[in-house]
Design a protein that fits this description.
Blueprint lengths: L4 E6 L2 E6 L4 E4 L2 E3 L4 H15 L1 H22 L6 H14 L4 E8 L4 E7 L2 H8 L8 H14 L3 E7 L8 E7 L4 H39 L3 E4 L2 E5 L6 H18 L3 E5 L8 H16 L3 E5 L3 H9 L8 E2 L3 H11 L9
Parallel strand pairs: 10-11, 11-12, 12-13
Antiparallel strand pairs: 1-2, 2-3, 3-4, 5-6, 6-8, 7-8, 9-10
Helix pairs in contact: 1-2, 1-4, 2-5, 2-6, 7-8
Length: 339
């Protein structure tokens, strides 16, 4: 068998292909080759599944940690300027583009990196995106975090996608860590989910409230000039206001004379509800109508008396039937059994 290893040196970097094992090494470390289009598909898939905010954080975290990993390979080196030049050679040989350390200060812990024709820029340009990528800028923040032994971050100063000759990245000390970015993103997503849930609950509550208002206090025409309004459940300001408004509108529209307030569906009555009934009665009287209270059980009568709310001059009956018969008589009619 022939030699299965193919070796090539680009600048100071060595690539070795082991055809027999299907392996590639770059300066002695296992490596992979990908087309730009494959990386583009990979990044687009992440954005499609995760959304813009999440994918941006994923790219930044990935780039930063890759930079930290690269810096560990050269840990202990003190010739930082030479090391940064070697970084540039490595990336150029690997097809990552042209990297130039434009400014650098170990004392101030700051640097400016200029990048031209990077794989990230090539992909974004082909995809017609108008904003520069974040993976390589955060990658350099990770590298300098390892070199400076403190947390660093980046700011995009210039972008090739905006017409500049290169991407210019400023690297500077930062109190914000990658872990904090992940935590903040998680909290943001959690807050968005809570807000979305609150909106759904609010919308559903409004629908249910509207349905309850429609069903809980219907105005029922019984006979000519006679209406019945059954009270169900507990009442608050909103329900009482709607109750009174609905009763006034229906009594006026139907030109009725009598309104029977049916308490059959109420098991317990408090002072607030009794005050509301009193207000309803007074409102009906103001437009010339009369109110009777029907469906008053022995328990309800005790509760009404115990509430110390005075409802004087109001005819009341223990059943709806009695109240209807009385209203019929007041209206000048009588019920006669058919022979």
């Amino acid at each position: 068998m022939g030699n299965s290893n193919y070796q090539i040196r680009v600048n100071k970097n060595e690539f070795v292909w082991n055809d027999q094992e299907g392996e590639l090494t770059f300066d002695g470390a296992p490596a992979l080759l990908f087309w730009d289009s494959a990386i583009e598909l990979f990044l687009n898939t992440i954005e499609e599944i995760s959304g813009n905010d999440v994918s941006k954080t994923v790219y930044e975290v990935t780039g930063f940690r890759m930079g930290q990993l690269v810096s560990t390979y050269y840990e202990g080196r003190t010739d930082v300027v030479q090391l940064l030049n070697e970084y540039s050679d490595i990336y150029r040989s690997a097809g990552w583009g042209i990297f130039e350390i434009h400014e650098y200060s170990y004392e101030e812990k700051r640097a400016v990196v200029r990048i031209r024709n990077s794989w990230e820029h090539r992909i974004f340009k082909l995809a017609d995106k108008n904003k520069a990528g974040v993976l390589l800028p955060s990658h350099w923040a990770g590298i300098f975090s390892g070199l400076f032994k403190q947390n660093m971050w980046y700011k995009m100063v210039n972008s090739q996608l905006e017409g500049h000759d290169y991407d210019e990245i400023e690297i500077f000390p930062s109190a914000v860590t990658i872990s904090q970015n992940i935590h903040e993103l998680a909290r943001k997503k959690e807050q968005e989910s809570i807000m979305e849930l609150e909106k759904k609950v609010e919308s559903r509550t409004e629908e249910l409230s509207s349905l309850i208002q429609e069903l809980s206090s219907p105005i029922i025409p019984v006979l000519k000039d006679i209406l019945v309004i059954p009270l169900i459940g507990k009442y608050n300001d909103e329900r009482l206001s709607n109750l009174i408004e609905k009763a006034l509108v229906e009594l006026t529209k139907l030109k009725a004379k009598y309104l029977l307030i049916d308490l059959t569906g109420i098991k317990h009555v408090d002072s607030y509800t009794i005050h509301g009934i009193q207000k309803l009665i007074q409102s009906i009287r103001l437009i010339g109508g009369q109110c009777f209270i029907v469906g008053v059980s022995a328990e309800l009568s005790i509760q009404i008396l115990s509430s110390k709310v005075k409802i004087e001059g109001i005819q009341s009956f223990s059943s709806l039937q009695q109240g209807v018969e009385y209203a019929i008589q007041q209206n000048g009619y009588e019920l006669v059994k058919k022979k």
